[in-house]
Amino acid sequence: MYFDFPAFIRYNFKAFFLTKGKHYRLTPKRFLVLFIWLILYIPNEIIYHLLLLLDEVLFPGYRKQEVKDPVFIIGNPRSGTTLLHRLMNLDGQTFTSFQVWELIFAPSITQRKLIWGIIKLAKLVGAPVNKALHTLNKRTTKRTKKIHAVRIDAAEEDDHVLIHGWCSATLWPLYPIPEEMLPYFFFDRDIPLKKREKVMKLYKNMLQRHIYAHGGKLRLLSKNPDQSAKIDSLQQTFPDARFINLARNPLETVPSMMDYMAAGWQVFCDPLEAHPHKDEFFNVMGYYYKYPMEYFKDKPDACYFIRYDHLIDDPERVVSEVYDFLDLDMSENFASVLKQEAEKSRQFQSEHSYTLEEMQLNPEQITESFSSVFEFYEFSAEQNMVSEKGVLLNVREWQLARKQRRRLRAKKRRKLLRRKEIRLD
């Protein structure tokens, strides 16, 4: 099982001894954060890796598990990826995604089987398992909603599972060391080939364990903004993968992303300024926009592009289009649940509040830097097309969306003709 031990040593050496004048300077708060993190991480990882080895003895069949037709939702953070993932994940008869508790407490099949067994036994003896879970979710959601609301039993970004190999961009808030961590945000471009292969081998191994533990027949549904930088690596590892790319007007996404990242830094570090590494993440966001645009320009069957304002305006319709793109039939039960949840999503009001001025950014800088993005998605050059409160202010038709819908209709017609031919035969 791959673990980047040299990187583990380097990160922590720099975090403790090379911090002068850095945003991760070693203040008393920062020392306490690192101390608590390491005394939890190290013993837990030793146990987890032993249990991962135990999987090889108890569940060797997982290695033959296929990761068939996985679906990867990509795009910049705060672009609707979480909403689409949450809606599609309601179709439990089709998809499976890592839940928070699996990522943190149970990367191995052995751990999951043990936890499921304990929960089942607790319910048999009358323990208030559901009540305890509700209380825990309420507390974790309250404490994490400023950055990214977390529920223990909710689907989450499975890139986090790579923390167990010390090779994930998720480590950035804890170790914001640019020379070490930024290459992960440009994965296909900046990570050396041999290391990319090791990381993807580990990722595939974790997916095999997950699907195997959940019965072996479900289709992986993954949502990871950071995988916007891993498109080619994912296609090489999973040749039948399909991608759903979401994009939001940069005038809205850039300040939202800066606010999101700053909130994490304030928790784990004492940065020298309120919004550190603005230039670096300005470039990261540009890469997350442009790489999918360029990579999939001649691969229309591999990726479906969605604009955030279209998703917010009619989530039910967008999910239906995604199912058509994936050649999936939507069950009546899921269609009913989707309708209810789509209506709830329209009522959602974000508590985030920020302006470009707070980040020392201006609209002209963004429209110039992301000019190709504005052109590709036909975004308005005016700010707040869709407000953070979810109130739709203006939805413009988009040429690519029309083309994609025409392609889906043609595919549907061909599918119906094939069914008729089969019935006639």
Q: What keywords describe this structure?
A:
425 residues, mainly alpha, 5 strands, 5% strand, globular
Give the N-to-C terminal Cα separation: 51 Å
Q: Catalogue the unreliable spans.
A: 384-394
Question: What is the makeup of the main sheet?
Answer: 5 strands, parallel
Q: What structural class do helix, strand and pairing data support? A: mainly alpha
Strand content: 5-15%
How many H/I helices? Answer: 18
What's the Cα radius of gyration?
A: 22 Å
Average pLDDT figure? 89
Classify the helix fraction into a percent range: 55-70%
> Tell me, what's the shape?
globular
Order of helices and strands: HHEHEHHHHHHEHEHHEHHHHHH
Order of adjacent strands in the largest pleated sheet: 2-3-1-4-5
Number of strands: 5
Walk me through this protein's architecture:
- It contains 18 helices and 5 strands.
- By secondary structure, it is mainly alpha-helical.
- The longest helix is centred in the N-terminal third of the chain and has 31 residues, at 28-58.
- The protein is globular, with a radius of gyration of 22 Å.
- Mean pLDDT is 89; it is low at 384-394.
What's this entry about, in short?
The protein is mostly helical and 425 residues long. It is globular, with a radius of gyration of 22 Å. The termini are far apart.
